Amino acid sequence: MDVNMAKLDELDLKILQELVADSSQSIPKLSKKIDVNTSVVYSRIKRLVRRGIIKRFTVEVDESQLGYTVSAYVGVNTDSKKRDSVRTGIMGIPEVRELAEVTGRFDFLVFLRAKGLEELHNVISQKIGMIDGVEHTETFISMRQESKGPEI
Amino acid sequence: MDVNMAKLDELDLKILQELVADSSQSIPKLSKKIDVNTSVVYSRIKRLVRRGIIKRFTVEVDESQLGYTVSAYVGVNTDSKKRDSVRTGIMGIPEVRELAEVTGRFDFLVFLRAKGLEELHNVISQKIGMIDGVEHTETFISMRQESKGPEI
DNA sequence: ATTGAAACAACTTGCAG
DNA sequence: CTGCAAGTTGTTTCAAT
């Protein structure tokens, strides 16, 4: 939120950028690279974590190597009285990765992954389609995907 | 891809799960937690990185605290002869975070973030809309968003 | 907030079994 | 894969600025 928006200086942004690119590099190495005192980098990172600007340290996993070879977006329309329970139901489906409540033609846009087209079809028609309150779905199978990190 | 799909055992998956949740925990601590010899955890992680199953160590940034308070999906239709240049053009827009080439009503689904509704409008109408080959766009402003990690 | 260094703690590698 | 030793490296603390 705007009111909670921390003032970040150039150094904070530089550190964020470096950690997004590679959070496994050690802080002494990082501080040498950006030519800033190690103690400062330590305390800046702690502050970024404390403020929640860094939400977590994690790894990016190649899900296709875990067998999830198909991904799709699904637009979902619901009975507006049942929006909340539909959201909960959708988030309970293991294949679902992201759900956005949106303006426009759909009520939700859902991103999900499946281990093949058959499983994708099954998830959409049997899992999403069967949730009470779901009135209509429209599927966009992703043939190719590119992503970028946050703009820092 | 299926042919390159590595065989991952329970231990590999457990390690991945732990690192997705928190990649800043040290390997000795992680190995104690899951009760596996430290040397084994070291070599498994190296193998996961070598195989590309772990794509990178990174941090998750709260972009709303960087001022990106508005996010949206945009469906894009293009002149099919100009698809490739449109893709390149869209990926060149700083606010764009993800682009998927999809089947169905749209040719692309684009996810982006902006620092306010005015900037969102500007990005869509002035940046995306002005790309040669873009014929139509449809905007879905995200009012609320939930995401989950990979299913491991 | 930053610096620099000391004291402390922890990680990483290599190897024999 | 195990367990450990040796070597290396990271982390905290603090007095001074």
UniProtKB/TrEMBL annotation, chains A, B:
GO CC, sorted alphabetically, is:
cytosol
Check the record and name the InterPro entries matching this protein: AsnC-type_HTH_dom, Dimeric_a/b-barrel, Tscrpt_reg_AsnC-like, Tscrpt_reg_AsnC/Lrp_C, WH-like_DNA-bd_sf, WH_DNA-bd_sf
Q: Origin, by domain of life?
A: Archaea
Mind listing the UniProt keywords for this protein, alphabetically?
DNA-binding, Transcription, Transcription regulation
According to the entry, every stretch annotated as the HTH asnC-type domain falls at: 8-69
| Gene Ontology BP term (one) | response to amino acid
- Pfam family for this entry, one: HTH_24
Protein name (record) = Transcriptional regulator, AsnC family
